[in-house]
Amino acid sequence: MRDAGIATRAIHAGEAPDPATGASAPPIVTSTTFVTERPEGFSIHAFAEEKPYIYGRWGNPTVDALEAKVAALEEAPAAVAFASGMAASAAVLLSLLSAGDELIISEINYPGTAELARQTLPRFGIHVQTVDSSDLEALEAALQRRTAGADTRVLWLETPANPILRLTDIEAASQLAHAHDALVVVDSTFASPILTRPLTLGADFVVHSLTKYIGGHGDALGGVVCGASDAMAALRQDALIHQGGVLSPFNAWLIARGMATLPMRMQAHSAAAAAVAAFLEAHPAVARVLYPGLPSHPQHELAQRQMSAGGGMLAFVPAATAQRDPLAQGRYLAQAFADRLAIVHYAVSLGHQRSLIYWIETEAMLRDSYQLDAAGAQRFRDAAGAGLFRVSIGLEDAQDICADLDRVLRAAGEGRAGG
Ligand SMILES: *Cc1c(COP(=O)(O)O)cnc(C)c1O
């Protein structure tokens, strides 16, 4: 299966007709416990690696099938699934880092990860340094600057990074980190395994929120970590079995079902997003569009090298109007979108068949999530302005998405929330 094309792997990896019934679609095994043929131990330590199914937190056939499918797409030796993307992220950080170690993390990323790194990990004696990882000189300086006495164990990257779609060169950053004996984790949720495969570029671990593109339908939370077999076995024992954030078999089944169409969905998301990005970039109500597939993206050249398409995520900064500055206009538009959009849902999350839009205010993000120095905050403001709309382009017809956004943008530009 590993040599098959990516569409074939998305459908067939991790599954086979059920030997008991011949069922073509895989069954869901929901049992939390498994009958054993002979008395076994009562701790996970009592079992060899090739253990039978014993208890649902230690392993489940439906979850195993999903892990095999994700690993096949990521070109990873192994994968471990978790109850959510944050459970996966927390597991990998807590199992790699100990008191006295240092984490270097990109200064802009998903707020849950940013807050975990800045607000929780320091309580356990873990040093945290933030860096603009899109700037390789700044990254090298951060690796050299390591906190006195600390061991830089982990470099955490997110690319494209939420919410400004900033990219990091995974291959170059991994080379720098490895020269300093640090392991590289990439949160590749926005790219999915279809657009970028970080392990093939030198990263040590890949994290995904399965809730997003991989599941793809907005109906199941999940997360996954991919990496080397021994590292994944250690993660399963240390972080999954003992911290307990296991994925439910029902969610694993839904997510694996969604994955069959992931390669086609990513192409369709990317094509529609490219069309909407071009439309918004030419729109008088829009000051700036951030989309890796646009030539105006500051790292468009890296996007073309590192991503096989631009992806389904874009952000745009509203233009000021005669009546309102960009912040006031953003707030006004946010309410207008929430009230008036017919197709696009005003909602958080991303990667679903339905298009989603959400207003994100810059100063709130800086205060609550990022807590950057003056230069880092300025870099974020330069990209995000006073605030931006993050848009997850779904699988609807691009012209319908454009028309829906246009109707509200035009009405708000004329000073009435009509439509
Ligand atoms: C959503 C998201 C997460 C967290 O995933 P959950 O499944 O919501 O816990 C982590 N990273 C990125 C980039 C995300 O978009």
Question: Please, could you describe this protein's structure?
Answer:
With 419 residues, the protein is an alpha/beta fold. The chain is 40% helix and 15% strand. The protein has 15 helices and 12 strands. A 7-stranded mixed β-sheet has the order 1-7-6-5-4-2-3, sandwiched between helices. Helix 1 packs antiparallel against helix 2 and helix 10 packs parallel to helix 15. The longest helix is centred in the middle third of the chain and has 20 residues. The chain is globular and about 80 Å long. The chain starts with 5 loop residues before the first helix and ends in a 6-residue tail after the last helix. The mean pLDDT is 95.
SSE map:
Blueprint: H1 6-12, H2 61-74, E1 78-82, H3 85-96, E2 101-106, H4 111-120, E3 127-131, H5 136-144, E4 151-158, H6 170-179, E5 183-187, H7 192-195, E6 205-209, E7 223-227, H8 229-241, H9 249-259, H10 262-281, E8 286-290, H11 300-306, E9 313-318, H12 326-340, E10 345-346, E11 356-361, H13 362-370, H14 374-384, E12 387-392, H15 398-413
Parallel strand pairs: 2-3, 2-4, 4-5, 5-6, 10-11
Antiparallel strand pairs: 1-7, 6-7, 8-9, 9-12, 11-12
Helix pairs in contact: 1-2, 2-9, 3-8, 4-13, 5-6, 10-15, 12-15, 13-14
The structure holds pyridoxal-5'-phosphate.
